[in-house]
């Protein structure tokens, strides 16, 4: 009954211990992770130093990028109100051009503006100087310049090397081309014709320069990508421009040149309307001047031929009566003349895409409104064509609107002309009554009045046109750009990338991540046992005990006065064996493993020694007939032993020898290595030997060959009461644990339990790994390879 209780208790303890450990391993043991990291502290230090060193090198040789910023204020009537001086232009009835912030942003982004900047500054040519590690671009202080006299638009990127042979001679070379010349000579290259101009203000500091030439299209596209234009606040009409460049001076020059080009184009747009009006007025002034001169000559000839001195007194009465009608008729005839001129201007197809001058007729508000809308739409179309083509749906839509407005203008002119003609007819009818009376005046007086009337009409028209021309000239001189620069292009004092703090943090984090990833992958992809969870995941066999790493060279690590951790672990095995060998008569313990080198002989010898220290008679049997090691470790002559006894050449008394370790410990050596170990173990004499030995000793410890390689251990299993299966940390393969699973599930071995050997705790918890044990045990198996970061230690034999 007592034996059953001990047996059941041992079973419950084993399963409980296994279940508790599984629960422990399932959770995230932060302490275990930290201890494992601390164990590899040197690896973290090396990687962190390497990461920071890489960051320093990157910061040293990386090309910095600067942000060049500028700000523009756009004249927007919806946000800014009228520009100062706009009231004067309105009084002069000049043309007003309204601007929109979003439209100006699109104009600033247009390719045409950037292309003009690239061509003006020769941005398709870059100059580099070779340094120790990298090439550095130069821009301002250049001792020479590539002056392209002719350059193809569609060319591939090319590179030239200019070497200074002496102060007046140089060489230009590229693939397949090598030429020598003097300064200011021209070169006929595949890309075009170039002239190397020497800049005497800057000395030649380097013997070699590299010049990279790209197409204008490539350079324009590149700088358009580097330019960022945004509207920071929808409530204001300001535009922010930010250009990214590796050379601050170059970026400032490009951005300021872009703003200058933009403002000049804006002023040119306004001046085109005024120039069109002035051109029209100048044309009309020439015609009116000739007509007025002709009328004045007719009057002169009429007076000379009729010897008329002063007709004022003669016609005073007639003029006083017809003055009102004549004045009104003159005004209507002036309007008719202007309307006919504008109608002729509108019929001319060459003026279809020109602005319509509107300052000539101010009496008709309907016509003025249509003209203003037409001119504004035409100007908007021209500005849109700066960033798009005529096939753009928006442009086509504008063309339809312009055609409709032009038709409205012609219709309005026709209606206006008809109304003026009605007024003239009415005035002429009224004037006919007076003319009836004028017929009574001498014919010469009447003819003179006709001449005078024509002169007055032409003179009034001449003065009107001259006045409008002066007003247009004044408005042109008052034209300003639609925007003004608030902040010119200015580079930030420090580069925005690479950011030193970010790079150093990345280097530090990389120094932490790489060793952490290496440790994780080492545990995840490792083929050998690395911790207790590896054992529990691959076999249901319970773990009886753990034996730490033996740092000494002594084979026997237990003694009466020994208090080392490893000695205490063997004492724990002795205690745990009481629960395994719970039945009366259980005394034979067999040790085996998966392969050689896992420490069976070391554990068997020390287990027998610790059992003998308890006062029990213990026999240690060296039953590894293929590769015996115990005799060699204890310095015994192995000429006689089990192999000689089982074939009848030795007696039992001859093979049982005192171990020399303890008075209660005896040894049966294996004897000479036989050619047929398995057949010897199957002999009846082997069974009789174990039966007899049970009567002589309290414990029998049997060291056998690896069960993963030969069947000797299974043959001896029928004589054993318990089996201790050795697994070694960082040595036993995970796949080999399936052997223990098969033995346990099919009960091929009696009371099988695991002993984990060569546990290295280090700074970690549980099984810390990294050192080889060094128990060389034949059978063609190699020791596990040591990692590059593992410590190299001299092997210790167990």
Précis, in short:
With 798 residues, this protein is an alpha/beta fold.
How would you describe what is shown here?
This protein has 798 residues and is α/β, with parallel strands linked by helices. It has 4 domains: 2-39 and 526-759, P-loop containing nucleotide triphosphate hydrolases (Rossmann fold), CATH 3.40.50.300; 41-62 and 498-521, no CATH class; 66-264, no CATH class; 307-468, no CATH class. 50% of the residues lie in helices and 16% in strands. The strands form 4 sheets. Strands 14-21-20-15-19-16-18-17 form an 8-stranded mixed β-sheet, with helices on both faces. Helix 6 (111-121) crosses helix 7 (216-226), helix 9 (312-347) crosses helix 12 (443-477) and helix 15 crosses helix 16 (600-612). The longest helix has 59 residues, at 248-306. The protein is rod-shaped, with a radius of gyration of 56 Å.
The CATH topology of the largest domain comes to Rossmann fold
Distance between the termini: 40 Å
What summary fits the major beta sheet? Answer: 8 strands, mixed
Question: Kindly state the mean pLDDT as a whole number?
Answer: 77
Number of helices in the DSSP assignment? 23
Total domains: 4
* Strands, count: 21
Helix content: 40-55%
Q: Which spans of ≥5 residues are poorly predicted at pLDDT below 50?
A: 1-27, 79-98, 763-798
Strand order of the largest sheet: 14-21-20-15-19-16-18-17
CATH architecture of the largest domain: 3-Layer(aba) Sandwich
CATH superfamily of the largest domain: P-loop containing nucleotide triphosphate hydrolases
- Spatial extent as radius of gyration: 56 Å
């Amino acid at each position: 009954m007592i034996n059953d209780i001990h047996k059941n208790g041992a079973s419950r303890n084993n399963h409980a211990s296994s279940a508790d450990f599984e629960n422990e391993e399932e959770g995230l043991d932060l302490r275990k992770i930290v201890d494992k990291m601390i164990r590899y502290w040197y690896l973290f230090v090396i990687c962190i130093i390497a990461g920071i060193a890489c960051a320093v090198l990157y910061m040293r040789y990386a090309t910095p990028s600067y942000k060049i910023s500028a700000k523009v204020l756009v004249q927007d009537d919806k946000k800014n109100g009228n520009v100062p001086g706009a009231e004067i232009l309105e009084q002069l009835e000049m043309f007003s051009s309204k601007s929109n912030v979003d439209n100006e942003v699109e104009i600033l982004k247009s390719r045409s503006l950037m292309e003009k900047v690239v061509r003006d500054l020769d941005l398709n040519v870059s100059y580099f100087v070779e340094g120790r590690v990298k090439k550095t671009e130069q821009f301002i202080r250049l001792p020479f310049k590539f002056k392209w006299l002719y350059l193809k638009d569609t060319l591939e990127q090319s590179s030239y090397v200019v070497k200074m042979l002496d102060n007046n001679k140089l060489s230009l070379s590229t693939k397949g081309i090598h030429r020598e010349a003097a300064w200011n000579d021209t070169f006929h290259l595949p890309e075009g014709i170039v002239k190397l101009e020497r800049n005497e203000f800057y000395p030649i500091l380097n013997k070699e320069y590299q010049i990279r030439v790209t197409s204008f299209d490539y350079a324009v596209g590149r700088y358009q990508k580097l330019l960022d234009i945004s509207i920071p606040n929808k409530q204001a009409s300001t535009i922010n421009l930010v250009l990214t460049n590796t050379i601050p001076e170059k970026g400032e020059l490009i951005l300021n040149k872009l703003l200058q080009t933009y403002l000049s184009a804006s002023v040119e747009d306004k001046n085109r309307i005024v120039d069109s009006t002035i051109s029209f007025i100048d044309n009309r002034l020439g015609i009116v001047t000739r007509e007025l001169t002709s009328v004045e000559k007719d009057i002169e000839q009429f007076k000379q031929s009729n010897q008329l001195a002063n007709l004022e007194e003669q016609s005073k009465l007639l003029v006083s009566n017809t003055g009102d009608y004549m004045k009104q008729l003159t005004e209507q005839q002036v309007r008719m003349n202007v309307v006919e001129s504008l109608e002729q201007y509108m019929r001319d197809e060459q003026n279809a895409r020109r602005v319509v001058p509107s300052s000539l007729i101010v009496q008709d508000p309907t016509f003025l409104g249509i003209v203003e809308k037409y001119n504004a739409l035409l100007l908007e179309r021209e500005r849109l064509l700066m960033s798009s083509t005529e096939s753009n749906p928006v442009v086509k839509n504008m063309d339809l609107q312009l055609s409709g407005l032009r038709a409205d203008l012609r219709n309005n002119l026709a209606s206006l002309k008809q109304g003026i003609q009605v007024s003239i007819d009415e005035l002429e009818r009224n004037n006919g009554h007076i003319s009836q009376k004028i017929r009574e005046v001498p014919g010469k007086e009447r003819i003179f009045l006709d001449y005078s009337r024509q002169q007055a009409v032409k003179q009034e028209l001449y003065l009107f046109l001259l006045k409008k021309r002066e007003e247009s000239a004044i408005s042109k001189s008052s034209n300003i750009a639609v925007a003004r620069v608030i902040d010119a292009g200015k580079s930030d004092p420090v580069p925005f990338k690479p950011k030193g703090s970010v790079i150093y943090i990345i280097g530090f984090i990389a120094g932490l991540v790489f060793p952490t990833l290496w440790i994780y992958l080492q545990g995840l992809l490792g083929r050998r046992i690395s911790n207790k969870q590896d054992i529990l995941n691959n076999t249901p066999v319970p773990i009886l005990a753990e034996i730490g790493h033996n740092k000494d060279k002594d084979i026997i690590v237990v003694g009466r006065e020994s208090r080392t951790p490893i000695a205490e672990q063997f004492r724990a095995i002795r205690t745990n064996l009481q629960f395994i060998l719970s039945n009366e008569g259980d005394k034979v313990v067999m040790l085996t493993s998966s392969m050689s080198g896992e420490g069976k002989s070391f554990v068997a010898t020390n287990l027998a020694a610790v059992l003998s220290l308890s006062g029990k008679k213990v026999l240690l049997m060296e039953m590894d007939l293929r590769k015996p090691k115990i005799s060699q470790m204890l310095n015994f002559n192995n000429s006689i032993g089990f192999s000689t006894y089982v074939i009848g050449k030795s007696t039992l008394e001859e093979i049982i020898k005192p171990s020399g370790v303890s008075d209660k410990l005896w040894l049966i050596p294996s004897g000479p290595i036989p050619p047929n170990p398995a057949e010897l173990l199957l002999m009846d004499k082997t069974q009789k030997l174990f039966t007899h030995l049970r009567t002589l000793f309290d414990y029998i410890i049997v060291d056998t060959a690896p069960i993963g390689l030969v069947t000797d251990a299974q043959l001896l299993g029928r004589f054993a009461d318990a089996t201790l299966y050795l697994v070694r940390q960082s040595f036993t393969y995970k796949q080999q644990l399936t052997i223990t699973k098969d033995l346990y599930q099919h009960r091929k071995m009696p009371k099988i339990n695991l002993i984990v050997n060569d546990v290295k705790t280090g700074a970690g918890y549980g099984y810390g790994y990294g050192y080889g044990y060094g128990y060389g045990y034949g059978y063609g198996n190699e020791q596990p390879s040591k990692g590059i970061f593992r410590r190299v230690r001299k092997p210790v034999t167990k």
